Amino acid sequence: MVYSSFIVAITLQIIPFFPQIWWIQPSWIMILLIYWITILPNQINIGTGFILGLITDIVLGSTLGIHSLSLSILTYLATRNIYFFKYISIWQQSFIVTFLSFINQGIIFLVKFLMIKVFSAPEIFWNCLLDGGSWPFLVFLMRKIHRN
C-alpha cells in the first residue's frame, strides 16, 4: 500500500492540473512522504526519502540529487519531530506541513541558485501554501482508503 501510493504520487506530480499555471501544484510526493512517516515511522526513513528524491529527479528531468537532498533533510526533520506532530490537531499539522514545504522548496531553490543561477522563484510560496492546504484532504482520503 505504501509504495503503490508513492507511485500514484509520482504520477500526480507529473500531471499538470492547470496548464496555464503549471508551476503551482502541490508536492504530492513530499506530502505523502510526511503522511507515511507519521503512520509508519519505523519503515519510512531517510533512505526512503532519498530514493523518492532520485525517482523524482529522474521523472521530472531535474538535476540529479536536488530532490534527493531536500527530501532526505525533510525526512530527517519529520522523523525527529514525529511524536510532537502526531498528537496535534489536523490544522496545526497543516501549518507544520506548510513550514516543511517551505524548507523543502528553499533547499531546492538554493541548490538551483548555486548551480544554474536562478534569481527569482516567487511561486515556491504558492506551492507551500497549496501543500499545507491539501494536507487535511490527503489525510482524510488516506484514512478512508486505509480503513477499506
UniProtKB/TrEMBL annotation:
UniProt keyword annotation of Membrane present: yes
One Pfam family it belongs to: MreD
Membrane topology, from the record: Multi-pass membrane protein
Membrane spanning stretches: 6-24, 90-112, 124-142
Keywords (A to Z) from UniProt: Cell inner membrane, Cell membrane, Cell shape, Membrane, Transmembrane, Transmembrane helix
Subcellular localization: Cell inner membrane; Cell membrane
Key word Cell inner membrane present: yes
Protein family according to the UniProt entry: Belongs to the MreD family.
Purpose: Involved in formation of the rod shape of the cell. May also contribute to regulation of formation of penicillin-binding proteins.
PANTHER family documented for this protein: ROD SHAPE-DETERMINING PROTEIN MRED
Protein's name according to its UniProt entry: Rod shape-determining protein MreD
Native organism: Candidatus Blochmannia vicinus
Lineage: Bacteria, Pseudomonadati, Pseudomonadota, Gammaproteobacteria, Enterobacterales
